[in-house]
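User: Hi! I'm working on a homework problem where we have to compare a predicted structure to a textbook description. Could you give me the structure for the chain below?
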Amino acid sequence: MTRTFEAVLVEQCAPTLAGIKPASLFRGQSQEGQPLQQKLSRLQKELEPSGIKIQILKTCCQTGACMIYLYRVEWLQRILSEPSVRDFLTQRGYSLEQGCTGLLGQLSQRLCLEQEYPHEIGIFLGYPLEDVMGFIEHRGRNFSCCGYWKVYGNPEEAQTGFDRYRRCTNLYKARFHAGTPIAQLIVAA
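Assistant: Happy to help. Predicted C-alpha cells:
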C-alpha cells in the first residue's frame, strides 16, 4: 500500500508541525494525479500563517524524487544567527551575507553537487552544534547514543528529546489517520 504524500509529511515532520523541532527533511515524489509542486504550493498556503515554510532542497534527475525541507522560519533564523553556528558555517565555506534564504540556497547547491554529503545539514535540522561537529570529526563513529541523530554531547538531554519526538510522531500519526487535517495539527509559533 502506497502512503500518501501528506501521510509521509506527518510521519516525518510531526515534531516540526508541533513546534518542538525547528525543521525536518523527508523524501517526496509526484504521485498519480497531482504534481509535487502543486501539492507543495497548496500546502505552503496552509503552513505560512503559522510561520512554517516548505521547499525542495534537491531533486533526483533520474527518479524525480525530492528532498523536501519543512522549517519554522523564525526558529531557523535564530539558530543561524548564533555566533558559534555562524563561525562553524563560515569554516565550512558558507557565505553569510544573504541570511537564512542564502544559507538554504548554499545547502541546496551542496546537496546537488553529489560529492561528499554536507553533514552540516544537521544545523539546519536543529541538531546541537556539538553533535554536528562531533559527527564530522569522528566520521559518524564513537557516538554516545543514537536516535534521530548521533550524539557526541549530552546523551541524557538528547534521549529526552528523542523520546519527545517519538511520542509526538505517534500522536500526530494517529490523529492524522483518524481524519485530522494537517492544518489542524500545526501549532502556531
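For your comparison, note the following. The mean pLDDT is 92. The two ends are 35 Å apart (CA to CA). Good luck with the assignment!
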